[in-house]
Structure formats: C-alpha cells, structure tokens
Write a structure and sequence with these properties.
The complex is a heterodimer of chains A (106) and B (254).
Chain A (H helix, E strand, L loop, with lengths): L2 H28 L1 E4 L2 E4 L2 H11 L5 E4 L5 E4 L2 H27 L5
Antiparallel strand pairs in A: 1-2, 3-4
Chain B lengths: L2 E7 L7 H15 L3 E6 L1 H4 L9 E4 L7 E4 L2 E4 L8 H4 L4 E5 L3 E2 L15 E4 L2 E3 L18 E8 L2 H15 L1 H7 L9 H12 L13 E4 L4 E5 L3 E6 L2 E6 L3 E3 L8
Parallel strand pairs in B: 1-2, 1-6, 2-3, 9-11, 11-15
Antiparallel strand pairs in B: 4-5, 6-10, 7-15, 8-10, 12-13, 13-14
The chains are: A alpha+beta (106), B alpha/beta (254).
C-alpha cells in the first residue's frame, strides 16, 4: 500500500475520532437535567446511585454536579426522568455511531 | 417570574456585529422561545433588519478597548456587559454573546434552578486542536462570560457591582492576577469577581459541561438551522444540534 493511501486512512481515522469526541460532548451536554433546583447528569453513575438509594429509602439526599445537596423526595419520578434523558441521548449517539461505521475507506 | 435573553451588540469599524446578532436571535427564537432584549447603540440599531418582537435598549457605549483578531488589532466594544444586572428587565437572565448560537433548548435547563450565577469554566474545541485555552494566562482560573445565567439576587448584584469595580481599576487587577493580556476581557473580570466573592478560594457552581467552541482560526463555511459547517486547515467538520460559540466574525458577511 502506498504512503498516500495510508495517509488517507490516517486522515479519515482522525476525522472519525474527532466526530465521535464531539458527539460525546454533545451527548453529555444534553444529559444535564434540573431537579428540585439542582443539576444532575443523566449518566449511568447517577442512575445507579438513585436505583440503589431507592431500594433502601423512600427519600434521600444526593450531591448534584456542583456538590450541592438535593433532597430527593420522589425517587421513582427522578429515576424516570434520568433514564428517559439518558436513553434519548444514547439513542442519538448510537445513530451517529452506525453512520460512522459506513464511512471507512473502501 | 420572568426569564429572558440579554444580548449586547455594538458594530465596530471592522465587524458587523448586528449580522451576527440577527443570526443569534433567530436561533433563540426557534429553540429557546424566550423574550429577548438587545442592548445596542443608535448607529447599530439602524442597521438591524426587522426581527419581530424584540426589545431594544439604546445606550451610548464606552469605546477604547481593542482586541487581536486574525493578526489585526481591531476595536472591541465589550465594556457595557458589567451593567447587565441593571440592563436586564428579567428575574432570570441568560446573558449571551451575539456570536453564541443555540441549536438546542439545553440552556432552558439552567433557568429554573437554585443557582444565582452560572457560567462555563471549561471549553471544548470542536476541531480537536485544543487551540482555545492558553496556558499560564493568569493566576486565576479562567471562566467564560460568553453565556452567563443569573437571577436577580443579592449575590448576582454583588457580582456585577464587583465586575464594574474591576473594570474601572482593571490595570490594578490585571497586575494583581498576572493576566497576560493588556486589553480588558470580561472573562477575566468575571473570573476575578467570582474568586474574590467566593472568599479567594477555589469554588464550584459552574455549568457542568464544557462550552463547544470554534476558534478565531476556524472558518465557518455555512450555518443552517441545524448546525455549523466549519473548516480548519484542510479539514472540514460539522456540528449538528449542538450549541456553539463561533469566533469567526466574517462568515455572516458572505
């Protein structure tokens, strides 16, 4: 394979990597939700914490993205909001990921 | 409780900021659907095309500040922003640069929460070149005044009062915080005010995710309702449904 083709592969790989990086940033921006006046990221960590706390108590306290405490009085409602937003953003990212699969050099 | 967007826009001999503001306002009307107030001067106001239900506040803006832009030294009318608390007619204000373009309603998340003052302290360079954040530019960590969400409150009032003082005595504060740039930058004035009002210690309370940005060096080729196509070097990139701060001031002239 000549060096020109290798360079094309490298350039394309760079572009795809950057596109993914930007899409992940976009996803994280969209994952921010407000709840009871505080800010939370609807990611797997937050969802897992809420699910775990919910199994032990009807209401509990959590730290938001800026480490400020928030009283969660309706964990079911909070969890629903988090999962909905998480899946909305992951669905968008998944579609982009599928598109990128088809953009490899032939 | 009222919520709205406040934009400062003053044309300079080199840049038609009103063209940027027109694009910015169209995006706000489409995605945020909030009331908008534009603070401008009479000369710039006359250049605006009809934009629907927009509030204008005409001021006689201060001049004299300058900036570096693509190898040139150009005028920069950025000295009115410190008066945003007084200029804003809203209980909750999204104070936004006219070169920040929204393609989502993400900012609405920050308008009904228990924070009096929020802005970005991180940026994401969409080109991947990390050419926006410099190193060792000052002894205070930089924040980005591009998008600032504030509520009419004691803390926000104190912030803007202190920013006005910092602006007035900027040479002193510039030396105190070893700021590399000689011109006045709101980013540093906001950073200093936050540092001082928070007791001179590190603090949090920022917008949790970085602000997506395209640097001066990046050319915007096209801006549609959905996103931005940009070029840097030999590479072309696209953003879709992502809010973005565009530093190229010339694409609107095309």
């Amino acid at each position: 394979m000549d060096i020109g083709t290798l360079k094309d592969y490298s350039d394309l790989a760079h572009d795809l990597a950057q596109t993914k990086k930007n899409a992940l940033e976009k996803m994280r921006s969209r994952q921010i939700v407000a709840y009871n006046g505080r800010l939370f990221q609807a990611n797997a960590e937050t969802i897992n914490v809420v699910q775990t706390f919910k199994a032990h108590s009807k209401d509990f306290y959590m730290l938001d993205t800026n480490d400020n405490p928030c009283h969660i009085t309706d964990p079911d409602d909070f969890l629903r909001i988090l999962i909905e937003r998480n899946q909305e953003t992951l669905n968008t990212y998944h579609q982009l990921h599928e598109d990128l699969k088809n953009k490899r050099l032939k | 409780m009222t919520t709205g967007v406040l934009i400062y826009c003053f044309n300079t001999p080199e840049v038609n900021y009103h063209l940027l503001a027109e694009r910015c306002i169209a995006q706000i009307q489409k995605h945020l659907k909030l009331e908008i107030t534009v603070v401008t001067n009479i000369e710039t106001y006359k250049q605006f095309k009809p934009l629907g239900l927009i509030n204008y506040k005409l001021v006689d803006n201060a001049v004299g500040n300058r900036r570096s832009y693509r190898g040139k030294n150009i005028a920069w009318h950025n000295l009115e922003r410190s008066l945003a608390y007084e200029h804003s007619p809203y209980d909750t204000t999204i104070l936004m640069d006219c070169d920040y373009f929204v393609f989502t309603d993400n900012l609405l998340t920050y308008t009904n929460i228990d924070y009096d003052f929020l802005l970005h302290n991180k940026v994401h360079d969409l080109t991947g070149e990390d050419m926006i954040e410099g190193k060792n530019e000052s002894t205070v960590p930089i924040v980005w005044a591009t998008v600032t969400i504030f509520r009419k409150s004691t803390f926000a009032k104190q912030m803007f009062d202190l920013i006005q003082l910092i602006q007035k005595r900027y040479e002193h504060y510039r030396n105190l915080y070893r700021i590399k740039y000689r011109n006045y930058r709101n980013d540093f004035a906001f950073a200093i005010a936050l540092h001082q009002l928070n007791g001179m210690v590190s603090h949090k309370n920022f917008i949790p995710t970085p602000m997506a940005m395209l640097a001066h060096e990046v050319d915007v080729l096209d801006m549609s309702d959905a996103g931005v196509t940009f070029k840097y070097g030999k590479k072309v990139g696209i953003t879709e449904l992502q809010d973005v701060h565009v530093m190229d001031k010339e694409f609107v002239n095309v």
